[in-house]
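seq:
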Amino acid sequence: MSQTVKELHNQRKKLWNASIASHKKYIDPENGLFKPQFLESRNCPVCGTNDYIVLFAKEGGQYVKCLSCSMVYINPVFTDEALNDYYGKNHSVQAELVEDGDPFYEKLYNSGLDSIERYSPKGSILDIGCSSGIFLNIAREREWTTYGVELNVGEYSIASKRGHIVYNELLDKITFEAQFNAVTLWDVFEHIKDGGFYLNMMKKLLFKKGIIFLQIPSSDALAARILQEKCNMFDGLEHVNLYGVSTIRRLADKCGLKILDIRTVIPEIGVINNYLNYEDPYQGSIDNKTDIPNLINENELNERLMGYKLQVVLGGMK
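struct:
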């Protein structure tokens, strides 16, 4: 791998290690699973059925797959009280990494804004889980009026000082003085237990032709399917819902939304090639990150919507 890619995976490793360190106090050392007092069982967050198979346990949590709609999710999941405690005391490594001005993130943010601007006029944009406001900085440079929601007090303070209008409250506790042309969630929606509830809430914040943009890890990703429990997509606690193309479509339809645009980014071919070469998928030595020999290349993988993350534009309220 190139030095740039290695640096990216070193950053990801730092983020991963910080997240896993935060898990430890909730785990029963005798069985390696989260302690029952922090957990509650649930039905499928997309179709509502309770018929599933267990896929694997990872870092204290258990991932299952719905036999009705193929949704992948954590079950049992942390209670709201336990999640609030966890996030209230969680690390800020993600903000520190993005704060470095990594062009990797800037490229993703601009790609997302390109998709948004195809379906929405420039106006007001609300970023939920805005961290220290790096995405909002880029949106403002592109002539959007910027708002954010951020629960981490330190990150909220930084974003506010950058001149964005930012709220340090849960979304359902905020009374907004404006409606929005676009609401964005960058690597946030997979953390939300009841995605349908929040999509319906966000619809009410939009102008009639407003849109919702999601970037989420994809359970359809080729890397996730091959690596499974070795894939960093599965963290055991925070990524409670892992949507694929069909399940995000089904949830959108259930909420009266249409998918205006859907694509994948971050092919992770280098990660797959490392793993297929019997090396650490994230720290291996394979340079080839453009194609899996004799199987698929980066463009074909994204055309088939099998990249690591989905970028989805929702709108056209029914």
